[in-house]
Design brief:
The protein is of the alpha+beta class. The chain has five helices and eleven strands. The longest helix is centred in the middle third of the chain and has 11 residues.
């Protein structure tokens, strides 16, 4: 049913056009004629200009949302500054690499230099160094008994497969004289020759020096004749 609510715009003087009727109805299909009949029954003089209808729309169900429209950004007026996007801080996971530890280097307790055995010259020096500390013996040719100077050089050369005569004078005659010696060549002293050693570097040689001393390093000294020579197979 319809409910009528009256509101006066001025002092009441009976039904007249000065009164304004507000009629609320839940139906939207009522004609103005029906409204006028209802108003006359209430003692009103209805006029289409003074009758205000408020139609209550029936309760409607929520329509499905179109997310494409909902996500469409609103138009921006020209000249409006665009806010810079804010960066979300991200956590970066870094893997800690273990610190490289230096491997302990082996410390040689020997005073002999460590050499490779890649060539005959290196092998000559290595064999000579392995015989350090053996006492001199005149005519000696073996580490078990001792060496003289030529016995020492001959034994070392034979260990690497190079022939040498027995005594220093014959060794000097067999070798080829050179001006620029290389490690492993022989150095001879005297005229006639009376001593021999193995050249290592300028001013240094390996030899079995003299009675009471051991084989090892010795300085290269000057004699009435000092010269260098090379084995024919090392030329």
């Amino acid at each position: 049913m319809s409910r009528a609510r009256h509101r006066a715009d001025g002092p009441a003087s009976g039904p007249s056009l000065s009164r304004r009727a507000v009629i609320t109805t839940p139906l939207a299909g009522i004609s103005l004629a029906a409204i006028a009949v209802a108003a006359s029954r209430l003692g009103l003089n209805p006029d289409p200009e003074t009758v205000v209808m408020r139609l209550e729309a029936p309760e409607t169900k929520a329509l499905p949302v179109d997310w494409n429209d909902a996500l469409t950004p609103e138009p921006v007026a020209p000249g409006t500054p665009t806010p810079s996007p804010t960066r979300t801080p991200q956590l970066v996971r870094r893997e800690l690499k273990p610190k490289a530890t230096k491997k302990p280097q082996a410390v040689s307790t020997s005073r002999r230099p460590v050499r490779s055995f890649s060539g005959k010259r290196d092998r000559i020096l290595a064999e000579a160094e392995a015989l350090f500390g053996i006492y001199y013996l005149w005519g000696g040719v073996s580490p078990s008994t001792g060496f003289d100077c030529s016995g020492y050089t001959r034994y070392v050369y034979n260990k690497v497969g190079l022939y040498l005569p027995r005594v220093s004078r014959d060794q000097a005659a067999y070798m080829v004289p050179v001006r620029n010696p290389k490690p492993g060549d022989l150095v001879f002293f005297g005229n006639p020759v009376h001593h021999v050693g193995i050249y290592v570097k300028p001013g240094l040689m390996y030899d079995s020096p003299k009675k009471g001393e051991k084989s090892g390093t010795s300085p290269i000294w000057r004699s009435e004749r000092t010269f260098y020579a090379r084995h024919p197979k090392l030329m």
